[in-house]
Each structure stands twice: as C-alpha cells, then as structure tokens.
Design goal:
Elements lengths: L9 E3 L6 H7 L4 H7 L12 E3 H14 L5 H6 L9 H7 L4 H11 L7 E8 L2 E8 L8 H19 L7 E3 L9 H7 L3 E2 L5 E6 L12 H17 L4 H13 L6 H7 L4 H10 L4 H19 L4 H7 L5 H12 L3 H8 L4
Parallel strand pairs: 5-6
Antiparallel strand pairs: 1-2, 3-4, 4-7, 5-7
Length: about 350
C-alpha cells in the first residue's frame, strides 16, 4: 500500500471563505458538510490552520452531495486576493504584476503548505502554475478548479476585468458540461494536463500597479515570517517539491535535484539520511502520488504518463507500478478513475 503523509500539510482557514454561502445557494447544509469533514470548529478563525487533506475531501464531498461537478469553480467566483489572506495583501503592495506574482510564489507556503505556485517565462510567454505536493489519494479535481478560478480572477483584479489568459490548463478530464469553464476562463481550455496552469504574454508582467506603501509591505512581510516560524516546512517536503519540479525537465535524478540545492549529491544523501529519509523512496513517493492522481482524474495515455514521470518507457513504469500496487496501471485506472 502507498504510504503518504498528506495529513502533515496545513492550509489557512480563509481558503474556505464564502463556502457556507455557496452551499446554501445550491440548496445544501454547510454545517452538516463541515461536520462530516471534521472542520466545523476549525474554520472560525480565518488566520488559523486546518488540515489540507480535510479541505480537499470537503470540496469533493460538497460537489457530490450538491450534484455540482464544478463546485470548486463556482467557489472561485466568490474569492479573490482576499482568499489568500496576508499573502494577498502583500501582493497588492507590489509595483507591477510580475512583482506581485513573484511575491505570491515566494510567500504561498505561508498560506498553503500542500501546494506550490510557480512562475516561469519562456519565448515571451509567462506560465503561472499551481501543483500539489505529494498528496497521494487526496482528491484534487475541485481544488485545481478552485485554484485556476482564483488565479484568473486575481489576474483580472490586477490587470482589468477584460483580461483573459491565452490558454488555461487543468489536470482532469474534460467535464460533461464545459460551459461554466468557458464562461469563467474565456479562453481555450486544455484538459488532462499535469497541473493547473495559465499562459499569457510576458509583457503583462510589466503592467504597473497602484503605488505601494513600503512600511505596510515591511509589516506584512514580518508577519509572514512569524507564521513560517510557527509552522516550519521540512527538508523532505522541499526535496519532494524539487523532484516534482525536476520531472518537468525530463531528469529527476539525484544529481539534478542536488544541483537545485547547490549541493553535491553525496551531501544531499547525507542530509536526507540524517532526516531519516532516502532519495529513491522520496522519488517513488512523488512518482506514485502523481501516477495515481493523474490516472484517477485525467485521461492522458499511460505512455504519456510514464514519460512525465521520467521512466525510460511504459514497460518500466508498468513494472514499478505493479511492484507497488500488485496490479497493472491499466487495471488500477479501471477501478479508480473519477467519472466526470
């Protein structure tokens, strides 16, 4: 059985801002759903932390109970920079859009320990992405829709309501009813991707924002540093994230990840050993977390998935998967794939 530590990740309760109102609007009982998820007492303090895997389960259960497959997308319509708490306020103090997104990437872990925001620029195009950090069997469909929706709303707040991305990518199969997605994103949508992401012109990053208050910026940054000391990240989580990042290059070897940390591979191995960890075990954990999520929520081919996970070919992936789960990837997908 795959072992995961998804319960170690926390997220700010503000991430569920306006959740009760939306559930009532759809004819449901938010109190009951929150109780079922064990979150009824944990969301009262917006700056408090809640277990991330419980929030993911709540979103998924809400979508099912309310017969609303795009629940996360609808919730994003009620949220904006305010849903990011202090991180959102820091972004609003930036001088331009690029700086605001850099601040988001830098400070996102103070808001959500279970996911990562990345910003990359290539060939005059910017890619803003949102991906999970080794969550195993935790459902991801509703969260990826919520994150993508918040991301687009956030960009429209910064750039103007008429702004649209060039393209939007989602890590799940195309829904039976794609109309809500088209109405919100107003751009081409590509499904079955490996993460939630949007592409737009690099020039957008230079868009100026309202003058910032340096004193307020300093106060907010000090507040965020205090939050990090209260809820520190761990070295294993950092390496898992770097492995996930390295997969995008087609090389997730020990040498590549050690290079990200400016360490010799033997030094990285020693630090992992001191923390009771092993690189191959972390690599396997990330690979199988990715494999099970993508097979459950996406219709990408197994050959493509094997390539994304840096296996030499499909047979190598299939062999490793069968060793772990005692069944082939095809059989596992048949049993677990989400029906959209």
């Amino acid at each position: 059985m795959l072992r995961t530590n998804n319960s170690r990740f926390l997220v700010r309760a503000v991430a569920l801002e306006h959740y009760p109102e939306l559930v009532r609007e759809l004819g449901g009982d938010p109190g009951q759903l929150l109780r079922q998820a064990g979150l009824e007492h944990l969301v009262a303090d917006a700056e408090g932390w809640v277990p991330y895997h419980r929030m993911l389960a709540l979103l998924e259960e809400s979508a099912t109970a309310l017969n609303c497959p795009h629940f996360g997308l609808l919730l994003s319509k009620h949220q904006g920079l305010d849903a990011l708490g202090t991180v959102g306020f820091v972004m609003q103090q930036a001088s331009d859009v690029g700086t605001a997104l850099t601040e988001l990437r830098k400070y996102f872990r103070y808001y959500n320990q279970g996911a990562v925001v990345d910003l990359a620029v290539e060939n005059r195009k910017a890619l803003l992405s949102f991906s999970e950090r080794s969550l195993g069997f935790a459902p991801w469909h509703q969260q990826s829709d919520l994150a993508a929706g918040i991301g687009v709303h956030m960009m429209r707040l910064l750039c103007g309501d008429g702004w649209n991305p060039d393209a939007l990518y989602l890590p799940h199969a195309a829904p039976a009813n794609a109309r809500p997605y088209r109405e919100i994103f107003r751009c081409p949508i590509i499904y079955d991707w490996d993460r939630a992401a949007m592409v737009f012109a690099e020039a957008v990053l230079a868009t100026p924002l309202s003058p910032a208050d340096p004193r307020l910026q300093h106060i907010l940054e000090q507040h965020l540093y205090g939050l990090e000391r209260s809820y520190p990240d761990d070295f294993g989580s950092q390496v898992r994230h770097l492995i996930r990042q390295a997969m995008d290059t087609g090389d997730c070897s020990l040498d590549r990840v050690a290079g990200y940390l400016s360490l010799h591979k033997r030094t990285l191995q020693r630090r992992l050993r001191d923390a009771g960890l092993n690189y191959q075990n972390l690599l396997d954990e990330v690979r199988f977390d990715q494999a099970t999520r993508q097979m459950r929520e996406s219709r990408c081919s197994l050959t493509e998935l094997a390539e994304r996970l840096c296996y030499s070919d499909l047979s190598a992936f299939s062999y490793a998967f069968k060793q772990r789960f005692e069944m082939s990837p095809r059989a596992w997908r048949k049993q677990h794939m989400t029906r959209g």
